[in-house]
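Action item from last meeting closed. Structure (271 res):
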């Protein structure tokens, strides 16, 4: 059972859990707070939308959870996965996080071409994540399972797709491959960072349906980042609204959209 707890501490409060900070200059102890007071929990099987205008801190929150912050950006506080057996993920080394990423938690990024290796056939890329984490006993088993995963995400003729390179696929097909990679090891937490922004409306609907269906089958927790409120209403049950690096509102999708307490949470279509 997955329960993801994310909390962030600002420089102003010692009892809350914690933000991302970047030093202003070398040799100085001054730090610039990028995120503060960001705290929420996602239960197993729950689909939560993280929304806000550009620069509000949505993607930075996701990268902090995944342990993928840029050099010079530091996260403090706590991120716990499942029953807390892994401890605070923010305190794990890169070697330890590499074992968790792709296994217990995974992420689908906005642009699939930046997430896929252009020199590898897509089937090999899907199989690779299973071999790295030891979820399939052999190379042959991982290869066979990769074709099954490509089929499960709705790609026609998955055996042929497995032999293709990323540039030979359409944008929607590439995003389905990325989804297959992210879901290969049945993670407890799936983070989607605007995965359909670059897709046309028809393909977007298919990919959204795919993500929801696959998450439900695995009873995984979903954190779905977007600026499109219509997408949130389609995918998510609960929504967290960020503005200026802080959470300004959270609650059930219907309640937040119909009776917002903060002006950045109203039914405006998109940010």
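Sequence:
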């Amino acid at each position: 059972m997955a329960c993801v707890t994310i909390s962030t501490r600002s420089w102003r409060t010692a009892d809350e859990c914690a933000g991302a900070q970047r030093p202003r200059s070398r040799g100085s102890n001054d730090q610039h707070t990028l995120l503060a007071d960001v705290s929420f929990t996602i239960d197993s099987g729950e689909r939560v939308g993280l929304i806000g205008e550009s620069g509000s801190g949505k993607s930075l929150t996701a990268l902090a959870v995944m342990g993928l912050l840029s050099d010079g950006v530091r996260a403090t506080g706590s991120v716990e996965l499942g029953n807390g057996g892994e401890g605070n993920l923010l305190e794990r080394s890169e070697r330890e996080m590499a074992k968790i990423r792709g296994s217990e938690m995974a992420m689908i990024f906005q642009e699939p071409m930046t997430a896929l290796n252009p020199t590898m056939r897509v089937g090999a890329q899907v199989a690779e994540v299973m071999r790295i984490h030891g979820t399939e006993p052999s190379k042959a088993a991982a290869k066979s399972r990769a074709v099954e995963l490509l089929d499960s995400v709705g790609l026609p003729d998955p055996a042929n797709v497995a032999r293709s390179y990323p540039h030979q696929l359409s944008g929607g097909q590439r995003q389905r491959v990325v989804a297959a990679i992210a879901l290969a090891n049945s993670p407890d937490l799936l983070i989607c960072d605007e995965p359909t922004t670059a897709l046309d409306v028809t393909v977007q609907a298919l990919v959204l349906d795919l993500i929801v269906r696959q998450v439900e089958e695995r009873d995984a927790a979903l954190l779905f980042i977007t600026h499109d409120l219509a997408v949130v209403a389609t995918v998510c049950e609960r929504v967290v609204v960020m503005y200026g690096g802080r959470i300004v509102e959270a609650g059930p999708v219907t309640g937040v959209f119909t009776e917002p307490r903060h002006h950045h949470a109203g039914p405006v279509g998109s940010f």
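Note appended to the action item: Residues 201-218 form the longest helix (18 residues).
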